[in-house]
Amino acid sequence: DAGVTQSPTHLIKTRGQQVTLRCSPKSGHDTVSWYQQALGQGPQFIFQYYEEEERQRGNFPDRFSGHQFPNYSSELNVNALLLGDSALYLCASHKTGTRYEQYFGPGTRLTVT
Amino acid sequence: AQKITQTQPGMFVQEKEAVTLDCTYDTSDQSYGLFWYKQPSSGEMIFLIYQGSYDEQNATEGRYSLNFQKARKSANLVISASQLGDSAMYFCAMREGRSGAGSYQLTFGKGTKLSVIP
Question: Is B11 exposed, middle or buried, given 0-12, 13-18 or 19+ CB atoms closer than 10 A?
Answer without folding.
Answer: middle
